[in-house]
């Protein structure tokens, strides 16, 4: 009896230690990824996109360092693109998005239309110059952005895409797919287990883009998977793409069994 009690408490201590060590390792992964100033520098071929009549450059940004005109640009584009899908929820959601926009955890990739020949010669140098001088150029030439964060979901470090927003003139030209490929590369390089995001059910085109074109699946943490009754009341789904077996088990499991 004594021996059993001893071993049980010893096992519990070992288990607790393992859990704490795992948590520490995950925190370290997030800290390391968040400390990288400009993730684009690791992917030079992704700094320029030229296809389907579009020629654009990508630049990095951080939420608490955004110049006022860029903040205004983000707000305007969000309103133009998202007021429809959010419907009556928009007023409240707009306030939430304004707060999220300027968080120090918010990482950005801005998409800027090509305006001069100098940047054509060396897009990466141009990007560095803009990032480190805080010079973001003329906000009128932005055509979209991605807002993403490194966070933990179900004990898995993930890249969470808060927003992927393109102006109408830049849509349906392969740019959204290109940006999501870049996000997946950033996630992989920084040892994240998955990419996750939330989509309004009313945003049928975006839902189709993620699930059909990019093969994202409805996550186990999405309300509709947690409880179909609650899911029916909610206006959104949480989607994911996992990169390892642990992330798959926690964020995607039982996908085959679901209705
Ligand atoms: C996490 C979130 O941010 S959810 C909110 C997503 N953002 C929005 O809804 C804002 C408005 N929309 C957009 O910004 C963009 O259209 C996005 C991000 C949804 C998609 O990016 P795009 O660059 O337009 O998509 P891309 O050109 O890469 O399209 C890939 C495929 O998705 C599908 N698709 C994309 N847009 C559409 C559309 N309007 N109608 C039908 N299918 C579409 C198509 O299958 C397309 O492939 P195809 O052009 O070869 O047929």
Can you describe this structure in just a few lines?
By secondary structure, the chain is an alpha+beta fold. The protein has helices at residues 2-35, 68-86, 90-101, 117-121, 123-133, 175-189, 204-213, 223-226, 228-233, 245-251; strands at residues 48-51, 54-62, 107-113, 142-153, 156-166, 194-200, 217-218, 236-242. It has one domain (36-251): Gcn5-related N-acetyltransferase (GNAT) (Aminopeptidase, 3-Layer(aba) Sandwich), CATH 3.40.630.30.
Features of the shown structure:
259 residues; alpha+beta; Aminopeptidase; 8-stranded mixed β-sheet; 10 helices; globular; binds acetyl coenzyme *A; EC 2.3.1.257
Describe the structure.
Mean pLDDT is 89; it is low at 117-137. The longest helix has 34 residues, at 2-35. This protein has an eight-stranded mixed beta sheet with strand order 1-2-3-4-5-6-8-7, sandwiched between helices. It is globular and about 75 Å long. Helix 2 runs antiparallel to helix 3 (90-101). The protein has a single domain (36-251), classed as Aminopeptidase, CATH 3.40.630. It starts with a helix and ends in an 8-residue tail after the last helix. 47% of the residues lie in helices and 23% in strands. The protein is an alpha+beta fold and 259 residues long. The chain has ten helices and eight strands. The structure holds acetyl coenzyme *A. Acetyl coenzyme *A is lined by residues 81, 161, 163-166, 171-177, 197, 199, 203, 205-206, 208-209, 213.
């Amino acid at each position: 009896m004594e021996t059993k009690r001893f071993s049980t408490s010893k096992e519990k201590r070992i288990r607790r230690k393992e859990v704490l060590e795992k948590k520490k390792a995950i925190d370290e992964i997030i800290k390391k990824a968040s400390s990288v100033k400009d993730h684009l520098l690791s992917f030079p071929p992704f700094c320029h996109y030229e296809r389907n009549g579009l020629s654009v450059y990508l630049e990095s940004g951080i939420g608490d360092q955004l110049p006022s005109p860029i903040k205004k640009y983000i707000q305007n584009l969000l309103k133009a693109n998202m007021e429809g899908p959010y419907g009556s929820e928009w007023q409240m959601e707009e306030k939430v998005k304004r707060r999220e926009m300027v968080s120090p955890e918010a990482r950005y990739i801005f998409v800027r239309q090509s305006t001069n020949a100098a940047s054509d010669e060396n897009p990466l140098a141009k990007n560095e110059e803009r990032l480190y001088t805080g010079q973001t150029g003329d906000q009128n030439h932005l055509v979209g952005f991605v807002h993403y964060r490194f966070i933990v979901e179900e004990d898995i470090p993930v890249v969470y895409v808060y927003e992927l927003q393109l102006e109408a003139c830049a849509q349906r030209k392969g740019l959204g797919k290109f940006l999501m490929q870049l996000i997946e590369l950033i996630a992989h390089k920084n040892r994240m287990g998955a990419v996750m995001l939330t989509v309004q059910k009313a945003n049928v085109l975006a839902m189709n883009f993620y699930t059909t074109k990019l093969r994202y699946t409805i996550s186990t943490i999405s309300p509709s998977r947690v409880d179909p009754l609650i899911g029916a009341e909610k206006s959104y789904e949480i989607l994911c793409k996992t990169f390892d077996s642990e992330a798959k088990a926690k964020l995607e499991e039982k996908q085959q069994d679901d209705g």
